[in-house]
């Protein structure tokens, strides 16, 4: 029996954190301010305090507790950076440049005091993030620069007027965006045309009129000369919290949720002892052949924390110390799952043991047409599944019930409401239904089925006849796992 399975999936590749950012550098020589918004639906936004040491400047960064790396921030010298998502463009980098071994934007804050120093530092590396993100850097001297892509090459636009503003379009190629100069950009220009004095009050007015309502997690005003940050959590513009450098460094190494932050910072008195992160790096290899295992799944069960290994098997993941006793799982199709306690896992090589699967003999009697099964069909409404494409390894799985079993899968169809990338790659998965937990159980496929589409949104249809997908259960979970070969370790 061969069933044509029609999957009506509304995968919302919203990427609001990337596609709804706002950055404004504004200076008149006497003052150097930066205002920005972070827009996303996560509820674990946090600040991280990194005191100076003999080899690095101290910095305050904004992040998410489930991630730990800098979304943006400022160091003790007044050097600032933040990024905004822009339409994908391939970039050809100079032959002398190399891949940075760690998180380049944090090292920039650690080592550089000015925009000039930052540009010299960055020119040594392949800034692959710029294929999809434009970066704004600014300093206490009033300098600012935008790093992006122009005609396939790295481009730098330095501030030549009182302000430099960036939202989610490429200023060199605005035609690439659905909204070339978005409404927030136009609103910002209008306010700056009426309020010409560089002041905290006027910057606040810009932020009030450019936020994204409930999607704005926090809004900040950086005073780069005074070395202070005024943050407003969830558009509560009547409740400012001011962070002053270097005073805040007395709290020690610390990461604390913005939802807990108070004006007197009382919650931070003990945070140096309770929150930090494990920066785990390594490589996943086949335990027998010692060959790399690409796209291995790495994550903590039931936590919104995970990643994939790169095509060469390398991986990097930041794990908050609150998960120290949790188990980090390493898995890939055809291999047994490897488990490690987070606190016990130093940067290392992970060997996966091949796991041979013997399939039962399958007898096909004939081909019978069935009513099309609709994945996500709920009382006449398509299911909407929010799905974050920021990080490789993100996945969703939806439960379907076929008219009968066994069946063959002929086609799969899904709809992207929004996709921030020009090329999308998925790994298709089928799981048994665990009747005890109601959750996905054992994996039913013994091979990788990779789906690729060069469209940013709309219906995508894939013919699966050549994959011979045979399912012997009526009630199954169908999963989509997002793959990103050019995975960057930052999100903005």
Q: Widest sheet: strand order?
A: 11-10-9-8-7-6-5-16
- Beta content comes to 35-45%
Roughly what percent helix?
A: under 10%
Q: Give me the oligomer status.
A: single chain
- The number of distinct helices, counting runs of at least 4 residues, comes to 6
CA-based gyration radius: 24 Å
Q: What's the CATH architecture of the largest domain? A: 4-Layer Sandwich
Mean pLDDT across residues: 79
In total, the number of strands is 36
Tell the overall outline: globular
CATH H-level superfamily of the largest domain:
Penicillin V Acylase, Chain A
Distance between the termini: 48 Å
Q: What is the CATH topology assignment of the largest domain?
A: Penicillin V Acylase, Chain A
Class computed from helices, strands and strand pairing: mainly beta
Low-confidence blocks of residues: 1-19, 357-393, 485-491
Overall domain count: 3
Biggest sheet overview: 8 strands, antiparallel
* CATH class category label of the largest domain: Alpha Beta
Keywords:
single chain; 492 residues; mainly beta; Jelly Rolls; Penicillin V Acylase, Chain A; Immunoglobulin-like; 3 domains; 8-stranded antiparallel sheet; 6-stranded antiparallel sheet; 6 helices; 10% helix
Summary of the model, kept short:
The protein is mostly beta strands and 492 residues long. The chain has three domains: 128 residues, Sandwich (Jelly Rolls), CATH 2.60.120; 259 residues, Penicillin V Acylase, Chain A, CATH 3.60.60; 76 residues, Carboxypeptidase-like, regulatory domain (Immunoglobulin-like, Sandwich).
């Amino acid at each position: 029996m061969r069933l044509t399975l029609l999957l009506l999936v509304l995968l919302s590749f919203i990427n609001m954190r990337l596609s709804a950012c706002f950055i404004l550098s504004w200076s008149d020589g006497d003052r150097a301010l930066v205002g920005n918004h972070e827009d996303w639906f996560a509820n674990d936004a946090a600040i991280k305090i990194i005191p100076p040491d003999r080899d690095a400047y101290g910095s305050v960064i904004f992040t998410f507790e489930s991630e730990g790396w800098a979304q943006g921030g400022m160091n003790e010298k007044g050097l600032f950076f933040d990024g905004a998502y822009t339409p994908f463009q391939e970039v050809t980098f100079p032959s002398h440049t190399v891949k940075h071994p760690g998180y380049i934007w944090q090292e920039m804050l650690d080592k550089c005091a000015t925009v000039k120093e930052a540009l010299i530092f960055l020119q040594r590396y392949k800034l692959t993030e710029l294929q999809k993100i434009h970066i704004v850097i600014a300093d206490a001297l009033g300098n600012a620069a935008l790093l992006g892509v122009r005609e396939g090459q790295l481009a730098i636009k330095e501030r030549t007027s009182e302000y430099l503003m960036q939202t989610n379009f490429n200023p060199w190629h605005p035609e690439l965006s659905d909204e070339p100069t978005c409404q927030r950009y136009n609103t910002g220009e209008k306010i700056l045309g009426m309020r010409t004095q560089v002041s905290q009050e006027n910057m606040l007015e810009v932020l009030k009129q450019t936020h994204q309502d409930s999607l704005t997690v926090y809004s900040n005003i950086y005073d780069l000369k005074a070395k202070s940050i005024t943050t407003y959590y969830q558009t509560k513009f009547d409740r400012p919290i001011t962070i002053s450098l270097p005073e805040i460094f007395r709290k020690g190494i610390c990461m604390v949720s913005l939802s807990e932050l108070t004006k007197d910072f009382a919650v931070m008195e003990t945070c140096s002892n309770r929150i930090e992160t494990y920066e785990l790096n390594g490589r996943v290899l086949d335990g027998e052949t010692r060959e790399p295992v690409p796209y291995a799944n790495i994550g903590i069960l039931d936590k919104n924390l995970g990643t994939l290994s790169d095509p060469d098997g390398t991986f990097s993941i930041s794990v908050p110390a609150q998960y120290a006793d949790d188990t980090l799982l390493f898995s890939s199709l055809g291999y047994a799952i490897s488990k490690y306690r987070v606190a016990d896992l130093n940067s290392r090589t992970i060997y996966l043991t091949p796991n041979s699967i013997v399939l039962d003999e399958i007898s096909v009697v004939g081909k019978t047409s069935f009513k099309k099964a609709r994945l996500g069909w709920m009382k006449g409404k398509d299911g909407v599944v929010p799905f974050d494409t920021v990080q490789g390894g993100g996945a969703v799985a939806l439960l379907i019930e076929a008219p009968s079993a066994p069946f063959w899968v002929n086609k799969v169809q899904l709809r992207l409401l929004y996709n921030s990338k020009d090329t999308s790659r998925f790994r298709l998965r089928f799981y048994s239904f665990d009747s005890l937990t109601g959750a996905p159980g054992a994996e039913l496929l013994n091979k990788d089925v990779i789906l690729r589409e060069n469209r940013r949104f709309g219906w995508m249809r894939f013919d699966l006849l050549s994959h011979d997908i045979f399912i012997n259960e009526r009630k199954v979970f169908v999963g989509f796992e997002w793959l990103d070969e050019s995975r960057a370790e930052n999100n903005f």
